[in-house]
Amino acid sequence: MNMKKWLTIFLSASFVLLCFSACGQAAPVSTGLADDTPSAAVADEQSPYANLDLSEEANVVMYACATEPNAMQEVLELVNQRTKEAVNTTLELYFIPSSERAQKYPLLMAGGDTVDLIFTANYCYYKEQTEKGGFKELTEEFLSTYMPETWATLPHSAWEETYIDGKIYMIPRNTACIAPDRGPTINMDIAEKYGYTADKINSYADFDGFLRAVGDNEAENGMYAFYASASSTLHQLSLIFRNNLINNQASDYVYYAQMADPTFEHPFFLYTSDYYEEYALLMAEYAAAGVWPSDAIANTNSVGTLFANGKSAASTDNFFNGITSVANYRAKGMNVELFDIFPEGYRILRDSYIGDGYAITSFSKIPERAAVVLDYIKTDWDTNMLLAGGIEGRHYFYDEQTNTVSPGPESGDYTYLGWNWGIFHANLAWPACDDERINAINDRIYSEQIKDEEWPYWGFTFDYTPVSAEWSVISALVTEYQTSFNLGMFGDATQQAYEEFVAKLEEAGLSKYMEEWNRQRSEFLAAKQ
């Protein structure tokens, strides 16, 4: 057996074992601070950081891209007791809400503020900030020295996914077993008012009918069918999931249509595809029907927040921990259901390891300590559970036998897995679920999941350098037009605006871009043979 084939089999086996650990195997857990926690890692030969000089106290500033839980500061005090004892470091944690990410993230990365660790992902500035020099290059020596537990946990394939020009600039989460797919969460009191009972929402066509039926008919109560904003749109449900489009490099805009192309041989540029044209026209129809208000672009709240506050009749949630959101809504007295509207034949691709993660900024003055504390909070079970779910007995209850979590009496103040996506533990405890609808959805999408050996592009990273000039204009055009298409802002002129958009993309050098993309793709596949 040649070395390449042996390595492929080894990495596949590593991933299976990691998924088994992350998705079901129980781990020992204790609550609160352990009495026998070593006073300092430097003095404890059993600590993975025993060979490091951590004698000088440090404070690491970390930014997460999420909404801050109400009880975050109380939880953070407990976390800092643990990090101070273990690695002589405290964590200063700040949050960038999704509605403010586009404005705040680039400003933070422009310098002037202390930022040691910041959330990043294949959809959240990873390539952009790396290319701008915003993230520190992480060598294997650096990672194995300052992040020994993470280095030992992640398979080589996970690090391969981070490569930009063969170099690592981010620390991915410890599991890729998470399915990113989402469905509509619907306020059934509103749905039933318009004749949509739970058994009548089984497809996108049904959901479409619901959106149009509600429209702005509840506007006098401040509610819309789907209260969109620049950052909360139907892009995923109406475009990506409805058509089963797959891409594991969210920033390159190149997709595959799984149902029409099951062997993934025909990549296409999303924004010039028939799928996108149809989507843009559909969003214009929704805008005209009052599915969201005409000034939605000025909305700074997420659709999830507006849904919880009775301002939106529908929201979206993922399925792997969707019961957490649904349970919180129901605890508030809301009549809520999460629906499977995927088309027949729909198959998911496991999430990328770099679907969530953290980077050390290039301007951090303490990158080594930032790496150490990130390693600790990612891999120490008790500390990670504090960050994942808050305080056991109040915010959540843990079942060691099943390695699952259920909401506590104060779960509304700290939603389990509500923000910590980039620091998931390898033995992630799953939300317990007794909702038959959600369990059926998960059974279906996981049983039909695309196998790793079917997806040939793990580890492929497009190098923009040969087409950097073209890409600069292409990405700027997408940024300029996509929000208007997402919110149907062109109205009756949408077809004309779309054709104008496509013409500008072609003029910018889209053909050259795709030619280069396919050349690199072919070289990558040939090298794997």
Question: What report would you give on this structure?
Answer:
The protein has 529 residues and is an alpha+beta fold. Helix content is 40%, strand content 11%. The protein has helices spanning 3-23, 72-87, 101-109, 126-131, 140-146, 148-153, 156-162, 188-193, 204-214, 235-241, 274-288, 303-308, 322-331, 367-379, 381-389, 436-447, 468-486, 494-508, 510-528; strands at 58-64, 89-95, 117-120, 171-172, 182-187, 245-246, 254-257, 268-269, 314-318, 336-338, 357-360, 396-399, 404-407, 430-431. Helix 14 (367-379) packs across helix 15 (381-389). It is globular.
Question: In brief, what are we looking at here?
Answer:
The protein has 19 helices and 14 strands. With 529 residues, it is of the alpha+beta class. Helix 14 packs across helix 15 and helix 17 runs antiparallel to helix 18.
List keywords for this structure.
14 strands; globular; alpha+beta; 40% helix; 19 helices; 529 residues; three-stranded antiparallel beta sheet
